[in-house]
């Protein structure tokens, strides 16, 4: 493990996230990961933050609502397209994604939620703020394109408490 600044690989991280990254949540002994393609990394409240969006229909939503942390694992160099595809199209309600995809859960350095082995860049985050989307404040074009079935997101603002590369 090589500790890095949260923004040291930000360009590479955001490029990779657009192709898929793993959002992992552990709550009450249950572990699940899902693929994310949207996220935001920034600096607010005097701290680095990683903001993720989780639709209310997702199994991950049920879990993240019961915890105060999450991890994001990003494959920069490694090819994990098949695993990302599976974790983005199958529900943790019906599958153990770690077994189905032979994913390795590596212990977090600061948080209890593990990171995904085989990925290159990892963020460990503590949730400090959540915001449920208010459809009345959403642009009509975005509503039509991204929420035709009114399956909205909650935004989770996670303070980045550790960021690092694994080999």
TrEMBL record:
InterPro entries given in the database record: Flavin_Rdtase-like_dom, Flavoredoxin, Split_barrel_FMN-bd
GO molecular function terms attached to this record: FMN binding; oxidoreductase activity, acting on the CH-NH group of donors, NAD or NADP as acceptor
Flavin reductase like domain ranges (all copies): 22-164
Pfam families: Flavin_Reduct
Source domain of life: Bacteria
Similarity comment text for this entry: Belongs to the flavoredoxin family.
Protein name as annotated: Flavin reductase domain protein FMN-binding protein
Organism: Acetohalobium arabaticum (strain ATCC 49924 / DSM 5501 / Z-7288)
């Amino acid at each position: 493990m090589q500790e890095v600044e949260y923004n040291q690989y930000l360009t590479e991280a955001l490029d990779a996230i657009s192709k898929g990254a793993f959002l992992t949540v552990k709550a009450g002994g249950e572990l699940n990961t899902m693929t994310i393609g949207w996220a935001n990394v920034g600096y607010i409240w005097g701290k680095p933050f990683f903001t993720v969006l989780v639709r209310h229909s997702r199994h991950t939503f049920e879990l993240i609502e019961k915890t105060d942390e999450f991890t994001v694992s990003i494959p920069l160099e490694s090819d994990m397209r098949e695993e990302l595809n599976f974790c983005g199209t199958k529900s943790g309600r019906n599958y153990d994604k770690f077994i189905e995809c032979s994913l390795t859960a590596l212990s977090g350095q600061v948080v209890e939620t593990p990171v995904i082995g085989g990925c290159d860049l990892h963020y460990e985050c503590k949730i400090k703020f959540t915001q449920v989307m208010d459809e009345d404040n959403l642009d009509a074009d975005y509503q039509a394109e991204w929420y035709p079935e009114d399956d909205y997101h909650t935004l989770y603002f996670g303070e980045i408490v550790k960021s690092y590369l694994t080999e």
